[in-house]
Amino acid sequence: MREIKDIAIVGAGLGGLTSAIALRRQGFNATVYEQSSSLSEIGAGVQLSPNAMKVLRALGLEDEFRKISFEPDRHVVRSWKSGRVISATQMKNVYEREFGSGYFGAHRADLHKLLAHALPEGTIRLNANCIDVGTVDNHAVLKFTDGAEIRADIAVGADGIHSNVRNCLFGKESPRFTGNVCWRGLVPVEDVPKGMFAPDMTVWFGPNSNVVHYYVRGGKLINWVASHESDWSTESWRSEASIAEVVEAYKDWHPDLTKLFAATKHCYKWALFDRSPLSNWSKGRVTLLGDSAHAMLPYLAQGACMAIEDAFALASSLAADRQEPNAALERYEGLRRDRASRVQSAANARAKVNHLTSRWARLKRDTAYAWRKLIKPSSHTYQIEWIYGYDVTKE
Ligand SMILES: Cc1cc2nc3c(=O)[nH]c(=O)nc-3n(C[C@H](O)[C@H](O)[C@H](O)COP(=O)(O)OP(=O)(O)OC[C@H]3O[C@@H](n4cnc5c(N)ncnc54)[C@H](O)[C@@H]3O)c2cc1C
């Protein structure tokens, strides 16, 4: 059988670009096909936890990423109205020792640019909208809207939550609206009162809602995301919303948050969708990666981290079995499916815990956190050491 050489990746998101880098490091000829006419990411933040940072380190990108991102001191959970600290976990200077790497927040566009620049020119083909993919005679065959057809040894669907590659493999099944909507914004630090927002990754828990904020771009900007339960179900990363709408929705919350929202120039709104875990990710010479395989709610900040882990696992699995694509793809799925599904379920479950409405349920939750911290002060409030401690580069 022909050795695996040419790999076609559909989608130049964080998952597609990382997989192209990892595959090229293993000697494969990886090409990325992106539907958009230019390479860009939205103006929003993304957090990378130690499990994803270990992949950036293995790909030689960690130092550059540290320069463009921000390492928060602590993960802090606060109460929506009083601002009382419910629970706090030290991250800076501890995670490196405990989990083998730190925890960072970045502007998505900065990370996207860093990944794109790590690829040789010509690796990314723009205006390439993949409309069909399948396996013919031991090859993946991809078709595009402009009539182009290409063959590759393996095709990878890194085309996000609305993945057409997934539809081609397993039939059309739309993502599910989760009843959660997000507003998001970026604020220059000089536009909020000095010292109002600590250099922490902060999450405020309130009834039917939570708000997250953290610094990005070396501490120059504060990224915030306010998630709340609503039946507005338009999923677009680029739907602009009015600040007045956010300020009104959070008028009973802590005044620091109102100040943060009011200082935002452009605010966006989008509905959150997810998918059920898949029992298979691959068919013939085609496989899935990132949100196309396991889109999840953002409450553990793991969607991109899982895509980055997938990227490394795919490249190392293909490199270990260059002559046997089926065995290599099986190995990839074996490494990834259970872990990604577990993280997906944990992220979905967190929505309920963050958004508790009953005072009694909130008291029970907060008391459990306090007890846990008493027994082991360094433990993460969410008990997600199993996510952060994992190192896909050692598998
Ligand atoms: C509010 C919010 C906050 C989040 N915060 C975090 C966080 O802090 N940390 C974290 O790890 N994750 C976070 N996530 C999740 C994360 O954003 C996603 O999991 C991640 O971006 C998925 O990457 P991807 O490459 O799989 O897909 P995408 O980023 O969606 O990229 C898909 C790419 O494929 C292209 N494409 C689509 N269809 C086609 C086609 N037919 N042909 C060619 N190209 C195509 C698209 O144009 C796009 O460029 C968050 C998500 C949300 C909603």
Name the structural class.
alpha/beta
Residue share in β-strands: 25-35%
- Largest sheet: spatial strand order: 5-4-13-14-15-12-17-16
Helicity, in percent? 25-40%
Primary descriptors:
monooxygenase, 395 residues, monooxygenase activity, eight-stranded mixed beta sheet, FAD binding, 18 strands, binds flavin-adenine dinucleotide, alpha/beta
Report on this structure.
The structure is a single chain. It contains 13 helices and 18 strands. By secondary structure, it is an alpha/beta fold. It has an eight-stranded mixed β-sheet. The protein has a five-stranded parallel β-sheet with strand order 7-2-1-11-18, with helices on both faces. A three-stranded antiparallel β-sheet has the order 8-9-10. A hairpin with a 2-residue loop joins strand 13 and strand 14. The structure holds flavin-adenine dinucleotide. The site of flavin-adenine dinucleotide (FAD) has 32 residues, from helix 1, strand 3 and helix 10.
Secondary structure topology:
Blueprint lengths: L5 E5 L3 H12 L3 E5 L11 E4 L1 H9 L3 H7 L5 E6 L5 E6 L4 H5 L4 E4 H10 L6 E2 L4 E7 L2 E6 L4 E4 L1 E4 L6 H7 L5 E13 L12 E6 L2 E8 L4 E9 L10 E2 L1 H7 L5 H8 L4 E8 L11 E3 L2 H4 L8 H18 L4 H30 L4 H17 L9 H4 L7
Parallel strand pairs: 1-2, 1-11, 2-7, 4-13, 11-18
Antiparallel strand pairs: 3-6, 4-5, 8-9, 9-10, 12-15, 12-17, 13-14, 14-15, 16-17
Helix pairs in contact: 1-5, 1-10, 2-10, 10-11
The chain binds flavin-adenine dinucleotide (FAD).
